[in-house]
């Protein structure tokens, strides 16, 4: 890796930021990076030293096997150590750090009239009461608790209460349908579900309790949060957990269509989310940090709850939408709380860009120091708008590449150290060793493009798929023995910068939400009049990618049922999976062995007429028919 000498426009870190930064220049990054790879033991031990350990580790900081031919895949961090996540992110600050009166969260509701402030001491007290409630309900160490809540403080309280008593939380994004929720509860075999009666998203009321349970209140089973919390004591001894005990399960889309329960564990996740938060956002005690993600996704787990709290940070917790009640809501909130670090998704930036600069001019954004993005590749145009209009040319943009599976950032700039190129996630974080492989698993050097893999674990990487170690090994380690396979394509340029090129499996990314074509196809197939369905992605100006569905009906004479199909996908998966296009297809292009040629469908969806070789198709005429009909759908 060298300091880039490039002709393209680079964005260098502002000197004011470098003065007081944790990693103040590129050379410091290189030195620390080298140490993290050459001596991971010393590097991670130093990180662990600031946390509380009921019992110290007896084993090394990290052990692993990434080679299936040599035995089971495993990662083990700090064997023998005992600790508690909740103690480290709350009690430690209140009792040892004197941060009791510091604001943990400024909660801002869907309506600007609803807001509240929660200090570290208040949060600890709520968490202990909730922990006692869960215990009283019979929840024990290792039991699973499903959480289906909107972005309200109770969500953070519940997750930390689970962590305190050693229960494993499984949060389900509150935009998912009842079927998706049900599937996740069943897989995790949760004994308790924590939900809300309802929530407003913009103008729309979502009845979460009704979605959770079509039957009304059951007095034998259900209890009201306020009633049980009121009577619950506010002290609760933390459960001292083994370093490798599970902390949570979070479901992510699998390419077969069935969601996978990604498991993260206590000690490694604590070290990694804490360190990435500190360095990637160059955190300082007087910062006000705001991540706009939902806690139902990994971004919220790592960078709204655990990473910020581990650092004693003050965060904004936002329940609402970027455009409600007006399109300047984000900018209004930044001004209101004097936000210094702001972390959002490219899809939100592209949405807000559409309204031009006018909505921003009304607000004072001079508090901002660092901007971040996550979830999907950011196009350079959106990057520049973010940098110039939102950050007023003053704030570095950290484009953080990572996954539910990685637990925290793996490729990312450090704001005071890394010269930026719009659209590149730049370089690996400490302890992370990327490689680019070709189809045969050969490592490619220099300027190249191929499969993005990682050679070694870092403390925050997933440990397994819940109750399915075999699927875990097959999904991430079978293709290239010795490497963790991300499923993303990647390019490395002449300056050593990494550029994510998108998924190379049957997954797609709609507004930063990863989903598999198979799960949408399965949802369509559930409809009785559908005989076959194939789903591909198509570029979309705001969402990045959108869903284009080809549907073959059992009875060809049936009239257009697009609206019905769209509705059934929303019912089955949730509104995030709403198809943008449904094309009625009399037949699908298939090979002679019957395999659907997705490449061709993708080209039809994108109206790319140069289809290349069609000789492997059983019936090439189908393609022409689909092209001719296309205008009706698109
Ligand atoms: O394809 C990559 C894309 O999002 C995928 C991971 O999705 P998920 O597990 O839902 O986690 C999203 C939040 C971390 C990746 O495999 N992705 C994520 N961040 C970026 C990205 N693609 C390009 N650039 C990014 N910064």
UniProtKB/TrEMBL annotation:
Residues 100-465 form the AMP-dependent synthetase/ligase domain. Pfam families: ACAS_N, AMP-binding, AMP-binding_C. GO terms for molecular function: acetate-CoA ligase activity; AMP binding; ATP binding; propionate-CoA ligase activity. Residues 519-595 form the AMP-binding enzyme C-terminal domain. Its EC number is 6.2.1.1. Keywords: ATP-binding, Ligase, Lipid metabolism, Nucleotide-binding. Transmembrane segments: none annotated. NCBIfam families: Ac_CoA_lig_AcsA, PRK00174.1. Belongs to the ATP-dependent AMP-binding enzyme family. PANTHER family: ACETYL-COENZYME A SYNTHETASE. This is Acetyl-coenzyme A synthetase.
């Amino acid at each position: 890796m060298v300091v880039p000498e490039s002709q393209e426009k680079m964005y260098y870190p502002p000197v004011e930021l470098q003065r007081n930064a944790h990693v103040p220049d590129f050379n410091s990054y290189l030195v620390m990076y080298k140490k993290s790879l050459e001596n991971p033991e010393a590097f991670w031990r130093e990180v662990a030293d600031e946390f509380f350990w009921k019992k110290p580790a007896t084993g090394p900081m990290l052990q692993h096997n990434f080679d299936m031919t040599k035995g089971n895949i495993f990662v083990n961090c700090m064997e023998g150590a005992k600790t508690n996540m909740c103690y480290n992110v709350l009690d430690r600050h209140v009792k040892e750090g004197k941060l009791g009166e510091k604001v943990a969260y400024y909660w801002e509701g869907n309506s600007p009239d609803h807001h509240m402030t929660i200090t570290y001491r208040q949060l600890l007290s709520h968490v202990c009461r909730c922990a006692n409630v869960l215990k009283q309900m019979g929840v024990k160490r290792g039991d699973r608790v499903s959480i289906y809540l909107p972005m309200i403080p109770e969500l953070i309280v519940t997750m930390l209460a689970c962590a305190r008593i050693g229960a494993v939380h499984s949060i389900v994004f509150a935009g998912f349908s009842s079927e998706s929720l049900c599937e996740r509860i069943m897989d995790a075999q949760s004994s308790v579900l924590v939900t809300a009666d309802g929530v407003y998203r913009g103008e729309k009321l979502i009845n979460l309790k009704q979605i959770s349970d079509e039957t009304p209140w059951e007095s034998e089973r259900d209890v009201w949060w306020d009633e049980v919390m009121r009577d619950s004591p506010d002290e609760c001894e933390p459960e001292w957990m083994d370093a490798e005990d599970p902390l949570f399960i979070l479901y992510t889309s699998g390419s077969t269509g069935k969601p996978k329960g990604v498991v993260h564990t206590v000690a490694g996740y604590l070290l990694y989310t804490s360190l990435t938060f500190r360095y990637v956002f160059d955190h300082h005690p007087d910062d006000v940090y705001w991540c706009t993600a939902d806690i139902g996704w990994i971004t919220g787990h790592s960078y709204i709850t655990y990473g910020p709290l581990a650092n004693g940070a003050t965060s904004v917790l936002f329940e609402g939408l970027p455009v409600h009640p007006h399109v300047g809501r984000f900018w209004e909130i930044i001004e209101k709380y004097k936000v210094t670090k702001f972390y959002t998704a490219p899809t939100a930036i592209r949405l807000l860009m559409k309204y031009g600069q006018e909505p921003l001019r009304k607000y004072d954004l001079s508090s901002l120091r660092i901007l971040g993005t996550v979830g999907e590749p950011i196009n350079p145009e959106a990057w520049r708008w973010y940098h110039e209009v939102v950050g007023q040319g003053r704030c570095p943009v950290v484009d953080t590449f990572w996954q539910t599976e990685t637990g925290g950032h793996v490729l990312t700039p450090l704001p005071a150290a890394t010269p930026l190129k719009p659209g590149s996630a730049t370089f690996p974080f400490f302890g992370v060793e990327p490689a680019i492989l070709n189809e045969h698993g050969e490592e490619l050097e220099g300027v190249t493009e191929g499969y993005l893999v990682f050679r070694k674990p870092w403390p925050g990487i997933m440990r397994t798929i819940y109750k399915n170690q075999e699927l875990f090994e097959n999904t991430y380690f079978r293709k290239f023995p010795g490497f963790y396979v991300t499923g993303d394509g990647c390019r490395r340029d002449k300056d050593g910068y990494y550029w994510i090129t998108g998924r190379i499996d049957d997954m797609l990314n709609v507004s930063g939400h990863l989903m598999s074509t198979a799960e949408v196809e399965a949802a369509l197939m559930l409809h009785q009049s559908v005989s076959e369905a194939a789903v591909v992605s198509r570029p979309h100006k705001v969402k990045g990618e959108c869903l284009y569905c080809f549907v073959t009906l059992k009875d060809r004479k049936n009239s257009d049922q697009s609206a019905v199909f769209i509705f059934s996908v929303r019912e089955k998966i949730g509104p995030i999976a709403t198809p943008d296009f449904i094309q009625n297809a009399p037949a699908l292009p298939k090979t002679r062995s019957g395999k659907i040629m997705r490449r061709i469908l993708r080209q039809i969806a994108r109206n790319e007429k140069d289809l290349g070789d069609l000789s492997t198709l059983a019936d090439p005429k189908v393609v022409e028919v689909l092209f001719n009909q296309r205008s009706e759908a698109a």
